[in-house]
Amino acid sequence: MSVSETAKQKFGVVAIVGAPNAGKSTFINSIIGEKISIVSSKIQTTRTRVRGVSIQGDTQIVFIDTPGIFKPNKKNNLERAIVYAAWESIEDVDQIIFLYDASKKINDETKALLERLAQQKNTPIILALNKIDKIDKARLLDLSKELNDLMDFDASFMISALKNDGISRVLEYLEKTLPEGPWHYPEDEISDMPMRLLSAEITREKIFESLYQELPYNITVETDAWENFDNGDIKISQTVYTSRDAHKKIILGKGGSNLKKIGMNARQDIEKILNQKTHLKLFVKVQENWMDNEDRFSLWGLSSKH
Q: Is the separation of the CB atoms in 144 and 129 below 8 Å?
């Protein structure tokens, strides 16, 4: 690469922040074009910070998909760690995207979140009204004005992450406004999340998809073993942890039917990402109070000790 080409390069880190279920994971997956963050109709699905890498012209953008921000239970170590990770993610970034579900009304939690964001005085913050397909245009304009009255955003956009509508305009804006600097990642890298962790998160997503009406949040998935074979195949062993025996029975299903379906769906997604034949073996174990066990969620880079 020539010196002149290097001088043109731009690089920036952009944090995506918002309430649970605002559509942050769908947004980042749409930008990257691959699944790097799991998506579920359950709120608080994203538990860790996920970095996705996108190239727009001469600009390399690292997007951080943060956990949804909510008021944590002070006695719940995992909840406190999740919220702390979300706020920590916006430190030292170049820009922040506040993603807001346009179908929701502004409430006290929204105002508190914006007040906290306003403390980032040296970081440009843009508003992205998401799920615009769920609200009429007149209401959208009113909502945009209400939010801009609460906080002086540097720019505002109306998007549908699910339908990939309006996202190109956000990317064009970032390409113009991010600073010059060398790229930090190879051109073909789309995420820095370890595949052992991503594959476990995909399995957790499939559990939610299959059983979301019956199963609470207190499950986690860990990759125990990852074996590469000479023929290119991969064997992955994972354990699903839940806090109650009744939940284990739900996950397993009659004759293990639920677990087989979950494993098949997870394997298909993992194979698409790896482009390799994958053998996935799932186990289910009961571990009471795992949500208070630092060792369990430290694997995601989380800690309640701060």
A: yes
